[in-house]
Description:
The structure holds 2 protein chains of 2 kinds.
Chain A: H1 2-17, E1 33-34, E2 48-50, E3 58-60, H2 80-113, H3 115-121, E4 137-138, E5 148-156, E6 163-172, E7 182-191, H4 197-205, H5 210-230, E8 242-247, E9 252-263, E10 266-271, E11 276-280, H6 292-295
Parallel strand pairs in A: 2-4, 2-5, 3-5, 7-11
Antiparallel strand pairs in A: 1-7, 5-6, 6-7, 8-9, 9-10, 10-11
Helix pairs in contact in A: 1-2
Chain B: H1 20-40, E1 61-67, E2 74-78, H2 83-103, H3 107-122, E3 126-129, H4 155-160, E4 164-180, E5 183-184, E6 189-200, E7 205-216, H5 229-249
Parallel strand pairs in B: 1-3, 1-4, 2-4
Antiparallel strand pairs in B: 4-5, 4-6, 6-7
Amino acid sequence: MExxxxxxxxxxxxxxxxxxxxxxYSDDHVQHVNSLDRKFLQDKKVTFxxxxxxxxxxxxxYQSNDAxxxxxxxxxxxxxxxxxxxxxxxxxxxxxxxxxxKLSLAQEQANEQxxxxxxxxxxxxxxxxxxxxxxxxxxxxxxTKETLIVKPIFFSNSEMNxxxxxxxxxxxxxxxxxxxxxxxxxxxxxYGSSLDVTESQNLLLNTDDMxxxxxxxxxxxxMYVVSNDLKGIYGRVDRANKTYFIKEDTxxxxxxxxxxxxxxxxxxxxxxxxxxxxxxxxxxxxxHQSDLHEQC
Amino acid sequence: MRFVExxxxxxxxxxxxxxxxxxKLKQLIxxxxxxxxxACGSTPQPTxxxxxxxxxxxxxxxxxxxxxxxxxxxxxxxxxSCLLCYGVASSLTSKLDGHLESTITSEELINIKxxxxxxxxxxxxxISEVTLPTKIxxxxxxxxxxxxxxxxxxxxxxxxDIDVLVVLNVYRHGAYRSFSSYIPNGDPQGHVAGLLYxxxxxxxxxxxxxxxxxxxxxxxxxxxxxxxxxxxxxxxxAIENAKAKIRDAI
Lengths: 296, 250
């Protein structure tokens, strides 16, 4: 009897804290889904459509550590079972709200650090960055059920010498239900090369529309990678996972996954999420820029 | 400056006869608590960097010992301060524990072990792996100031025929999750913790001392069983951060 009461109490507390146990929501990643037939789009042209915003979304890159320090809350012992659950619920809500607050503050501060670049992109339309993929872009009215909806989010580090892109892409399923389902959903992340001091200054001055050109290269690379994934070129064969490194500000960022393509100085890795991550194979020398579409 | 008269008149406090036994008991409690607090409040050993000319003496024999964690990779829970809190915390991370135990091997720790060896080789040290005749815990205590090991390693000089001993002790790896009673303070983080230290066996002084305590937050949703991709990546990031620290230290 005592055991089952204890178990019930444990279950109640676990269900109460389970909401607080999850990661706060952020809109810059999606879970991989692919239920497409292998022959889907095999001989057809991939068409794209932009989700919601038409303008460039550029954000500061930040460390997403939302963990808090110890919060000392004294539980009132004589409050009974309902009282205890109420107190735990309140404590969970406070912690959750503080975690969300910490994360949004970090994003705001990171955005503030890249304000000069943000100001340059305020009026920049995504359509102007598409290059050869512009002809494959459909408006939401003309999109078909096979059209891939894309949402590009650009990032800059605080030094404003390394740009990157996360391209969220999905094909909604026509299945009706309470929860939105997808035939295909994935994220492609593209890292640009680190800029040297002169390049970095030119980027801030936007010499020769340099920022547009850099963002365009990232976006076109992402479109190339996501098209390949959609056509099943990267396959889904089990390969051994390895650790790859991307040089960021002061450290090496780890990517765990397998190499699916080596193309024009870029490695394309399928990581543990099945996200596709492309980054320069090596640091480019002064007269060698390894951006994918410059040479290929 | 104005002096404020105390509000309490101490002269009016009456003397109360107190039982002798009661005083002794109170004294005992105070002494025990003091000992406990003094032990907790001792200054931790700060990092000691290996200087460029250390270990450069010709014919200096360097021994190296690696001590791995006692447990398999698992979630290390901190701050769940009551039995029921711990039960709740364990339930929240049980699936992650299963994943860690089945997929994370000691392979990366062995890579860290080999890294220490190769970094010492690169410095030109005559380093070789040794087996300790006794566990470090069983060595005699050494009363020294900061900068000296708490155990007396000097006896190992003759026993192992070495001048300097390098110890890498990795005592935790897997996940770290902090709680405030029942409530998690954040997501489980990729974690590796240990100590890397080098001792001069003539003096028992630390030549180098580095504490490793890497915690890396997953970059997106952590709770994605069965493969936990975000968490797994953060574990490998913690391992790489530890390696980078070791490279810097040696």
